[in-house]
Structure prediction request, 359 residues.
Amino acid sequence: MDISKVAEKLRSELTCSICLDLFDYAVTLDCGHSFCEVCVLRSWLQAHVHWTCPLCKSSSQPRVLKPNWLLKDLVSFTSRRLPGLGEEDGQAICGQHQAIQKLFCEDDHTPLCVSCLTSAQHEAHGVYPLKESAETCKGQLQEAIGCLWAKVRQAQVLLEQEKRRWRKCAMEAHTLRWVILPEYIKTHPTWKEEEQQVLLEEEKRINVRRLETTQARIHCYVQSLKKMTGELKKTLEKPVMEMLLEWRSSMERSQELLLRCPEPAALGWTVCGTTGMRELLLAFQSHISMDPETAHSNLIFSGDLKSVSIARQGILANLQGEVLSMLGAQSFTSGSHYWEVEEENQTGTLTICPLIPQY
Prediction:
């Protein structure tokens, strides 16, 4: 008979019908069926019915399970002489019982052998076959890697928002200094414009510093997320026992890192901050719509003519100084005015230059 067929026949005879693996400390019940000791014990614990054969449901006499040494010796003998029957490389040996550790206690986070399972120390613990625990571990590591990459994308969006706020901060300071502050001082004769401008410049520096600090923190946070992702991938690629022993600490550190996302910078302008000033300005607010007849051919307008987008991506890099311009449908002949523009998903440089018609 072919040696491979002999190996296949022996494997069938020496395989536990519960775990579908070679017998590990086989025990034989009164009905004649044999199982791994740990398999039959776990079967009884899960079914809450002891001394019943998991295969034929026959009852056995209550007694201490003793190993079937014949089956144990046969597995050991054939595994040394026939291919395909040996134990996997790298399996750990229990220091106390000198047996292969095929179980894993998820409460104590330690590998166990069959004899360890019967001790009172692990009686109420969650103990599972090593392979089953490894699959659970791999699933949780892969899920954690997905969460980390999602957090990377979220942090990168926040970083872009802070960069836009940094650019907008200078525009706000300019508006406060040249438009709002002069009008506000008219209602506060005791205020000196030079002093308020000095205060305004100091607040601008504080806001810019806060934004730059937040950007630096977010950048470092993104790098930490990517580094943690790499560590989890390395843990996932390690041998089963090393992966199980390192898995918990890696997961705890990744969960802690996910909770440490920096917050956006808190900005504020106290100059011209008297209650009611903004409400007063809003009373004179006028919504501007754009005139499509005066617009550049590469601009696309919304239906309400209040927003605009570029027709083709990447066109800004090829304009070579050309201006994408348009005019507003409304015009002003007198008074002081300023414009508020919302910028979204901008990949190039946007400059708003209101054109005041000459009369």
User: Anything to note?
Assistant: The radius of gyration is 37 Å. The chain has a mean pLDDT of 75. Strands lie at 26-28, 34-36, 103-105, 110-112, 127-129, 290-291, 299-301, 308-310, 327-328.
